[in-house]
Amino acid sequence: MLKIGLTGSIAVGKSFVCECFCELGCHVLDADKTSREVVAKGTAGLAEIVRHFGEDILLENCELDRKKMGSIVFADTEKRELLNSIIHPRVIESQNVWIAKQAADDPDGIAIIDAALMIESGGYRRFDKLIVVWCRPDIQLKRLMLRDSLSESDALARIAAQMPQDEKKKFADHLIDTSDGFDTTRRSVEELYKTLKNSA
Fold first, then answer.
1. Which CATH superfamily is domain 2-199 in?
2. Where are the domains of the chain?
3. Which one, out of 14, 28, 106, 158, has a CA that is 20 to 30 A from the CA of 137?
4. What is the dihedral angle through the alpha carbons of 62, 65, 68, 70, rounded to the nearest 10 degrees?
5. What is the mean pLDDT of the chain?
6. How far apart are alpha carbons 70 and 162 in whole angstroms?
7. pLDDT confidence of residue 75
8. Alpha-carbon Rg of the chain, whole angstroms?
């Protein structure tokens, strides 16, 4: 099985690219989904977050208040690193179990894990290839403001909190530019899929 890491900065179109790969028959896991699961109500992950950040970061139903947590860690590098140190090992462990299952079910297939912080966490090293999804900065800003109903300054702060896109591109085996919209992106994904299928 070919193991692919897929990453990119906030609001660059990773989800759409993953949808395209799914439609082509790849097995795709969204790390955001996994990171929600490892800190769900009642998990050891959530208990550890509460131990470090206090009960204020819980909603009334005892689930993690993701919005509050986001505002805390986006403003503080040290706290962001602490949160990542709690979540990342659990996410990687969960991903490894998923990859093993896909490999058993479909040895000749392509498994793709989509994770925003794959390069920063060093997690990309576990994969055969790394795809970096990107788009022009002005488009990224517009998409983020629209998607999350953010002001320009808040959106820029979120973008600035991540590794710059140009830096991420240096790690890529393959790049997908989503700047020109859905149809062009879909064609790029289809081309790349053919390349990956040949090497799988």
1. P-loop containing nucleotide triphosphate hydrolases (3.40.50.300)
2. 2-199
3. 28
4. 140
5. 94
6. 13
7. 82
8. 17
The answer, yes or no, to whether residue 200 has pLDDT greater than 80, is no
Residue 148 to residue 90: CA distance in whole angstroms: 27
Is 200 within 8 Å of 35 (Cβ atoms)?
A: no
| pLDDT value of position 116 | 84
H or E stretch including 60? none
Single out the residue of 96, 91, 86, 120 nearest to residue 10, CA to CA: 120
- pTM for the model: 0.86
Q: Is 109 left (phi over 0), alpha (psi -120 to 50) or beta?
A: beta
Specify the residue for token string 């299952």. 101
Contact 15, 21 (CB under 8 A): no
Calpha distance 34→18 (Å, rounded): 15
Helix (H) and strand (E) counts for the chain? 10, 5
Q: Of 1, 4, 60, 53, nearest to 189 (Cα)? A: 4
Strands (E), the chain: 2-8, 27-30, 110-114, 129-134, 174-177
- Other CB atoms within a 10 A radius of the CB of residue 188 amount to 19
